[in-house]
Write a structure and sequence with these properties.
Helix 2 (18-28) packs across helix 4 (82-93). The chain is of the alpha+beta class and 103 residues long. The radius of gyration is 14 Å and the shape is globular. A three-stranded antiparallel beta sheet has the order 1-3-2. 43% of the residues lie in helices and 13% in strands. The protein is built from four helices and three strands.
Amino acid sequence: MKVLSNQLLEEYEDAIFPYQRELMIHALAADHGTPYYRNYFAAAPGSANDKEWASLTKAGLAQVIREPQPGIFPDRVYSVTFEGTCYVHHLMRGRKGHGRGSK
């Protein structure tokens, strides 16, 4: 896993809201004990989650992997970028007992 510089970590800590961190952790299933087996999050266009993901995308921590297709798939799908995954990895290392079966 890539090591992020302390300066970059501090920038992320200042720029990323706690809810956005939780969205990235959820998208990666990083809190489930299995190392990042998933990497997507579907959000309805214009929703609160869509706006949070758009902000993460602008910061380079997420990307759009699928745009809505009217009548077929109504949501916009995001994934966490490699840099975002490294950031989540850093966050999870700091959490005690994060994962299934942890005590």
